[in-house]
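dumping this here before i forget
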Amino acid sequence: MSEATSPTVSLVIPVYNERDNLAPLHQAIVAAMGATAYEIVLVDDGSHDGSARVLDELARNDQRIRVIHFVRNYGQTAALTAGIRHAQAPVIVTLDADLQNDPADIPAMLEKLTDADVVCGWRKDRKDHWLSRTMPSRIANALISKLSNVPLHDYGCTLRVYKREYLEQIPLYGEMHRFIPIYVTWAGARLIEVPVRHHPRTRGESKYGLSRVFKVLLDLTTVKFLRDFFVTPIYFFGWLGFLLFATGLLVGVAALACWTIWDLPVMAACLTVVSPMLAIFGVVEVTLGIIAEVLIRMHYEIQGRAPYRIARAHGIEPSAEER
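structure:
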């Protein structure tokens, strides 16, 4: 792409089994973006419903479209990472391919960049099933906002606008894409949230469910650790050790009382053996999880490897670590 036609905005869209939504999505983007110089980076995350063929057809008919095909399904975080890495514009917009995000909201969000570095969408009037999607999301948003000190109504909304410099150094692995607003605030980004439209899904099947709640909780634990204890982990493990030691003393005192005062030998045996064993096993499991998280980040950063592989691409030349 020549300098004269270089895009000012890159739309990064992960795609997984959204064949029937892709053509309408393209039409909605074209109508919304108007005369803006933009590109569309579509990342096929191992779709098996014919989405790859539709994406290649769209790319042949619109030179603003570039396509990345993964060799298999790596997840939304990896797809967003690949799209961001290959985006060319100084402003990056992320959105879903299911047409629940409305591209018509993008121009107004771009205007907000005069007052902020990151603009996050808020699905204020959400059109998802209340019990399986909306209610768990509200609980998760409140919990994430409280623990991260970055208050947002909607951490799950993919529709966001970023100034590129705040995304380039963020390492994203696992399911960490929802926490990008937290990462960019660590880099000093000014962040605002604006209400956006949300449409019910009319084609295809949702890829989200209650099972993601547990993933979010585990990822939030990791983010909390990385923010508060990554540089000084002794504060985390030290205070936890003191707490466990104090608990052990209390349990020992209770066990001694059960033996000598209350004549409850069975209870005393349980307090003496079961409780400290369970506490130790819990600490070991949490510690191993955090150590593994740190090690996998070191693995990718030190070796310069990407957490995905690209099978083929249209209009993009994958780097050696992506193949």
